[in-house]
Amino acid sequence: MVQGDHPPDDNVFRAFMSAVYNTIDAPVTWVREKIVEPNQKKYPWYHRQFRRVPTIDQCYTDDVLCDFEANLQFKRDRAVDSEILNILRMRYEDCMLYESPEHLTVCKPLWEKYKAAEEAWFIKYGDLGAYADARKAYMKQKHRMIWERRNGPLSEHTK
């Protein structure tokens, strides 16, 4: 409570508590406003960008730190791709709800986009299990590429 904003308080206890509060709060507020906030990077929380790290195929076999960073990057990428798939599904479901009688024709482009994204997600992350890591995904990609070289493309997304 700043004294300039309010009339002086006649209650002695409230005045004492206000003085104690200002004694503790004033230095903390000053440090926050004059030192911490001017030195902070300003960016919206939803635009945080992590630097891209080397993928698992660029790491040496004995480089544990590179493996760890590649696994974290893989998990972030999988979470982003899963969220994109979730948003596409929710858009299709909302379209079905709002366009109820003729949703089969109106929502068809959304359905096709969702199915294409789902297929691409499954090609990249499917059948890896809950404890997937970058090395398993890399091996899956390698085996898929060998199979496609022998038998032709799996889908139009892998041409």
From TrEMBL:
Give UniProt keywords alphabetically: Electron transport, Membrane, Mitochondrion, Mitochondrion inner membrane, Respiratory chain, Transport
The record's subcellular location field reads:
Mitochondrion inner membrane
* Similarity remark: Belongs to the complex I NDUFB10 subunit family.
> What is the membrane topology listed in the Swiss-Prot or TrEMBL record?
Peripheral membrane protein
Q: What is its main location?
A: mitochondrion
Which Gene Ontology cellular component terms are annotated? mitochondrial inner membrane; respiratory chain complex I
Organism of provenance: Euphydryas editha (Edith's checkerspot)
Official protein name in the record: NADH dehydrogenase [ubiquinone] 1 beta subcomplex subunit 10
Q: Which domain of life is it from?
A: Eukaryota
Q: Name one Pfam family in it.
A: NDUFB10
**Where are the annotated coiled coils located?**
none
